[in-house]
């Protein structure tokens, strides 16, 4: 299926300072992108199921 897209890659351990002061943190960005990816994946699966009926 050509509609697929790549899953976000988690930040490396040394990408985060661990201080808690960064806003947004690299992890905040990663989790936001991961959520978008999951939603898009669900829509792609749903569309594929509809098309297979």
UniProtKB/TrEMBL annotation:
Pfam families: Oxidored-like (PF09791). InterPro entries: Oxidoreductase-like_N. Residues 6-45 form the Oxidoreductase-like domain. This is Oxidoreductase-like protein. The lineage of its organism: Bacteria, Pseudomonadati, Pseudomonadota, Gammaproteobacteria, Alteromonadales.
């Amino acid at each position: 299926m050509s509609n697929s897209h790549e899953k976000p890659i988690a930040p490396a351990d040394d990408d985060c300072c661990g201080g808690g002061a960064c806003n947004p943190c690299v992890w905040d960005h990663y989790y936001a992108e991961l959520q978008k990816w999951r939603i898009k994946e669900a829509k792609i699966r749903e569309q594929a199921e509809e098309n297979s009926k």
